[in-house]
Amino acid sequence: MNNLRYRLQIVIAMVAFGSLGVFVKHIGLTAREIALWRAIIASVVILIHLMAKKRMKTLLDAGSFLPLLICSGVAMGFNWILLFEAYNHTSVALSTLSYYFAPTLVVIASAVYFKESLGMLQIVWFLLSSAGIVLIIGVSGGGSNDTLGILYGLGAAFLYATVVLCNKIAKTVDGITRTWIQFVAAAVVLIPYVGITQGYSIGTLPAKELALLGTIGVVHTGIVYVLYFTSLAHVRGQQVAILSYIDPVVAVLLSVFVLGEHLTMWQLAGGLVVLFATAMNEMGTNRKKSTTTVPLS
Question: Structure pTM?
Fold first, then answer.
């Protein structure tokens, strides 16, 4: 029964992540400012959680890993910026499908940096996933904006892989604690970055869009990240890998049926190839409990 509860928490998290693009699309701020406020709001939510659970002492576990976690937090912040830029330049569906190349990158990078075994099947899945990306880009059908959006999505995927690799090194640090440090680091770096590059426009947002921004920070990030990380220790890695694909399915469905964005059969075929190859790759490597992954969205 407990396992069912934690699996349900992951399902809720994935549905929330899948709806993120719809919220971002309706907020009249730049990608970098949305990422900034997401980091700030989520940092506060998770700090409240740590204080309520009397887990502030877990911050001491970061120790020598603190510089690494700060760097990975910066990567996480810019990862969000690139993902949100992808939403701005192409559909949520194409952004998400290109972004889901990230887990494959993690498997390959882990083989290079951590000397984890890489079988022939994993190489096949990597090549197949790459072919799916080429298919999506090659027949995007939406002109230069689609291509640029997909490239932003791939850039976000590379930064996501960086965050996961850092988490593997700092795996002895509690997942929620790692996340809080990363969010704070992202906020600290993005505050001057946004101020210098564009200034702040949040004061001009109407109440409805402020509510959407607050929802992204509180629900999509703060609360949902807590649900996700408190579940990881109780669900096998293979189950987490399978359930994580609820995210792109929800994103594609909302993109087409709620936002009315166009998705050709070739794009869908390329996306399915990416998701299939990535899922096969992950299920072959995540049979045990995993606590070093981070949500993609």
Answer: 0.90
